[in-house]
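queue> holo job accepted (pyridoxal-5'-phosphate)
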Amino acid sequence: MTRLHDPSAHTFASDNYAGAHPEVLQAMTDANGGHVASYGADPYTRRLGEVVAEVFGEGASLDPVLTGTGANVAALQALVPRWGAVVCATTAHVYTDEGGAPERLGGIKLLTVPTPDGKLTPELIDRQAYGWGDQQRPQPLAVTITQSTELGTVYTPDELRAITDRSHAHGMTVHLDGARLANAAASLGVPLRALTRDAGIDSLSLGGTKNGLVLGESVVTFSEEARAGLVFLRKMDAQLASKMRFTSAQFLAMFEDDLWLRSATRANEMATRLAAALAELPGVTITQQVEANAVFVVLPVEVVEPLRAVHHFYDWDRTTGEVRLMCSFDTTAEHVDSLVADLRALLG
Ligand SMILES: Cc1ncc(COP(=O)(O)O)c(C=O)c1O
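queue> job finished
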């Protein structure tokens, strides 16, 4: 095969613009060769089950899926019945960026709450948590939150506990979209289980690709109830990979020698470096706390396109000129400094 891209190219567009971590690619290579059983009945998926119990605690189950959207849909379907509704932030990926899959594919009504920083609180959840037994109202039976949030902010273990306590008191389960759970745990310096099982989370979409995997996410459940029907739903949602050994091998690599932590720490450190440098520049306003690997910033309108032409990043809010700069496991200090130098030159 002829290489068709520049392997030294770097952007601030998304952590899934990055390639795969070499240790992940090595794990896939090591899992290759010979025949093993398909659809998860392989030694890598079995070993992953043991590792997950070590990482998240006894009783935690991991079911690999293909995409984050698929993880969210299947996990939520397993949590709520046909008449159930799920409370989420208006900025939640499940609401804004999944093509309506939770609602259209999953058949789950989403009940949204606006939040300035991407985070829900017990009080915000209460705005939608009512009307049980009212036959006219979609029944709020679960909450989904995102860690780190779509706005790059992070829930502390105490904030999560407050949410799960309130939700459970309402008879609602709590799902965590952990596409960037690793970044949140790295940022807080806590183990993954402190932000999930130990905080009362029922079901987790565990991110892989944004942390350096080629392909694959997982649903991690912390009780038999949260996992009920999940394996059937995974198949029905077209999320069951036949050659699952390769997805599982990637997650094994992610957990080995804390690769997840090394990768997330680097991405977070680069976002911190970027934010610190941007804060010094005139006319540049950082709009969110930088707590993980994303920096949200309003730039003077005339510099956005020339800067984007070199470093590529996405608009977040066109009405305010806010853009999102995302760092990845392979972002280096030189990448950050180069963006800052170009911006400084454009600002004159
Ligand atoms: C918070 C969050 N959840 C879920 C997803 C969905 O992942 P996928 O693109 O694999 O469906 C993304 C992807 O950007 C995300 O940022």
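queue> The chain has a mean pLDDT of 98.
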